[in-house]
Write a structure and sequence with these properties.
By secondary structure, this protein is an alpha/beta fold. It is 40% helix and 20% strand. It is built from 11 helices and 12 strands. α1 packs parallel to α11. The chain is globular. The mean pLDDT is 98. The structure holds glycylglycylglycine.
Length: 354
């Protein structure tokens, strides 16, 4: 029987609540549909851990994570500690340290989910956003001079490398060629940011030559944001820099009904390091502890993890169970207009798995 080790970091706010449901669902699906066992290592790394120890993770934390086949992550961020500690000492370094350069963020309009745009049918919005995850605007390069004075200066540098641009573009093109529409949009802003995004565009022009079977085009990020609202059904695979991908996927989540349904995978395609799977949403301190967060973004992230582990039947079973629960419409968390709890939603998906 296949056996996988998965590190689980619930993190902050609603993170642990939604991850508990994702663990239940993934475990049931892996066992029933692929005969596989998932062995979970629960790690308490979070803002509370930081307050106790002065660190977001122990000194050997990265080494501990490396011993696992995958990482399931909830959310990080708490109003009592600056993001430059919580996000910048746990989540962002994990993506870089484990070279998880592909941040895959699907957006799909499920049946039974109210769409804020009129006239959109279930399945009509169906896109994969490939966000560059290790450099770009999120590179920790810059400085802060004369803080608190009238001469205060902050410099934040975007880092774009030929290798970094080409490899995320190739990952997106590889995905596009497997999809029925075989269409790819590269997001840029090289009319304003001529150096970094100029290199991005040059890499796009070079890489697209290797994919004549894919219809590809380049679009400015402002036009892309407008079209995500005006005609999201026009997009198939979208590839974007770290910041643009982050912003656009909140928008793609909104037009498909709820950020509570938006899943993501932070993938190291070489498999030299573990990949990490997390909902797109953050810790949502306003609803934390109330048991009302929608766990489906975490559950669908766990489905991406099952795919990555080669448990394709289990992954398909999770997606199918989620689709049926949403289409049924009887179990809905408040983000979908209902009154059900996080646990009710988890129960419904586990029951639908069979
Ligand atoms: N589960 C996602 C999460 O915890 N997000 C917090 C955050 O600040 N993320 C920044 C990012 O995804 O780049």
């Amino acid at each position: 029987m296949a056996d996988f080790r998965v590190a689980v970091i619930g993190g902050d706010g609603i993170g642990p609540e939604v991850i508990d449901q994702a663990v239940r669902v993934a475990e049931a699906a892996a066992r029933r549909h692929d005969g596989a066992t998932l062995r979970w290592t629960r790690l308490p790394w979070s803002t509370a851990f930081y307050k106790q120890t002065g660190r977001m993770l122990p000194e050997d934390g990265w080494e501990q994570l490396r011993q696992h086949d995958a990482i399931l992550f909830g959310a990080v961020g708490d109003p009592s500690v600056p993001d430059k500690v919580t996000v910048h000492e746990l989540l962002l370094p994990m993506r870089r340290r484990f070279d998880q350069y592909v941040n895959l963020r699907p957006a799909y309009l499920f049946a039974g989910v109210p769409c804020p745009l009129s006239g959109k049918k279930p399945g009509e919005i169906d896109m994969l956003v490939y966000r560059e995850n290790t450099e770009g605007e999120y590179a920790p390069v810059g400085g802060h001079l004369y803080p608190g004075t009238e001469h205060e200066v902050a410099v934040q540098t975007g880092v774009f490398t030929r290798r970094g641009c080409e490899r995320i573009l190739r990952a997106a093109f590889d995905a596009a060629r497997t999809r029925p529409r075989k269409t790819l949009t590269s997001v840029t802003k090289s009319n304003a940011q001529v150096y970094g995004l100029g290199l991005w565009d040059a890499a796009f022009e070079a890489v697209r030559k290797d994919y004549p079977d894919v219809t590809s085009s380049s679009l400015l990020v402002d036009a892309c944001a407008m079209d995500f609202v005006r005609k999201p059904e026009a997009f198939d695979v979208v590839v974007a820099s770290n910041l643009f991908g982050d912003i656009l996927t909140d928008l793609s989540a909104a037009v498909t009904g709820s950020i509570g349904l938006a899943s993501s995978a932070n993938i190291n395609p070489t498999r030299q390091f573990p990949s990490m799977f997390e909902p797109v949403h953050g810790s949502a301190p306003d609803i934390a502890g109330k048991g009302v967060a929608n766990p489906l973004a975490a559950v669908l992230s766990a489905a991406l993890m099952l795919d990555h582990l080669g448990l394709a039947k289990a992954a398909a079973a999770v997606r199918d169970a989620v689709s049926r629960v949403l289409a049924g419409g009887t179990v809905r968390t408040p983000d979908l207009g209902g009154t059900n709890t996080t646990a009710d939603m988890g129960d419904a998906v586990v029951a639908a798995i069979g």
